[in-house]
UniProtKB/TrEMBL annotation:
Domain of life: Bacteria
Pfam families, sorted: ApbE
InterPro entries: ApbE, ApbE-like_sf
EC number(s) from the headed UniProt entry: 2.7.1.180
Organism per entry: Brevibacillus reuszeri
Reaction catalyzed: L-threonyl-[protein] + FAD = FMN-L-threonyl-[protein] + AMP + H(+)
Protein name: FAD:protein FMN transferase
């Protein structure tokens, strides 16, 4: 007798955002077990990588800046990935924005910030930060006085890592892991249907800008409008730090959604495009990300789609595109 299957939906909150999973399940008991697995995973990730928890592994590492420090296998993995992407992006992505975020006023978990109360305008000097990784001994040494923030990679990594574990260890043939908008998916929503991922408008989260359709792969979105507050000069601040100035970025891009194979890569490159701007962002995507597509929203409200012409209508459901950038060119 064929075993009945169903899609199991589960949501929880971690890392100051909503986590969601949709997984193919064979029974109610299996669904309950999957909920526990998801809960445990995101709890562990938050308590390892959060800069806001004083007892997290990341806080311990930051408190031992300048000293050789043993780290967990998972921390070592994320730090190696962060360093690889720092090199690949020419330093536009960097985990060394901790002090810049504090200087801009993002010194505690976002829901606890008083968005209207001006934050300090104290001047900070930012040193070029670096770390020495020792993969064999699972150790790292931060340059003295430097501190890490892994918010730019941890969410995507957690979604991709969990998705891989669910596929390999628990044989989940069809699923989706959504870590606050960073989505890793596989197997399609059904045997004959891809997953349909809605991307919200940067101006109104209740409105869908587009729908991306994929059976396998990932989608991630980054925006300068999502997390904003004011500094002591009543200037608007946001959480995407430009490492060239160590201040919130000021490009002509307000939102970028990237679709590809790996949600870690999609998350990183969506942030990079928001920081460097439209023209440079498209050049970098073409050079470094041959399998990625992107929907970029400019500060003027124009929609730029970077895709292959033969995939444009198949993967992107958009009423009107202002500018189309063919990946084949």
């Amino acid at each position: 007798m064929q075993q009945e299957v169903q899609m199991h939906y589960y949501r929880c909150r971690a890392m100051n955002t909503e986590m969601e999973t949709i997984l193919l399940s064979s029974s109610e008991q299996m669904s309950q077990e999957l909920s526990k697995i998801v809960d445990r995973w995101f709890y562990q990730v938050e308590h390892r990588f959060s800069r806001f928890l004083p007892d997290s592994e990341l806080s311990y590492l930051n408190n031992h800046s300048g000293r050789l420090t043993l780290v967990s296998e998972l921390m070592a993995e994320v730090l190696e990935l962060a360093e690889a992407f720092r090199i690949q992006t020419g330093g536009i992505f960097t985990p060394f924005v901790y002090d810049a975020l504090h200087a801009a006023g993002y010194s505690q978990s976002f829901e606890k910030l008083d968005k209207e109360k001006p934050t300090s305008t104290e001047e900070f000097s930012f040193r070029t930060a670096a770390m020495m990784l020792h993969p064999q001994m699972k150790a790292v040494q931060l340059r003295a006085g430097s501190h890490l923030d892994l918010g730019g990679i941890a969410k995507g990594w957690s979604a991709e890592k969990l998705a891989g574990r669910l596929r390999r260890k628990y044989r989940i043939k069809r699923g989706l892991v959504n870590a606050g908008g960073d989505v890793q998916l596989w197997g399609g929503s059904s045997v004959n249907e891809p997953w349909h991922i809605g991307i919200a408008s940067p101006w109104n989260q209740d409105e869908e800008l587009t729908i991306v359709s994929r059976r396998e792969g990932a989608v991630a979105t980054s925006s300068v409008l999502g997390r904003r507050w004011k500094n002591g000069l009543h200037e608007e601040q946001h959480h995407l730090i430009d490492p060239r100035t160590m201040k919130p970025g000021n490009s002509d891009v307000i939102q970028c959604s990237v679709a590809g194979d790996s949600v870690i890569s999609c998350e990183i490159w969506a942030k990079v495009v928001c920081i460097v701007g439209l023209e440079c962002g498209i050049v970098l995507l073409r050079k470094h990300c041959p399998r990625m597509e992107a929907l970029i929203v400019s500060e003027t409200g124009d929609l730029h789609l970077v895709s292959h012409s033969h995939l444009r209508n198949e993967r992107w459901e958009i009423e009107q595109i202002d500018f189309f950038h063919d990946r084949a060119i």
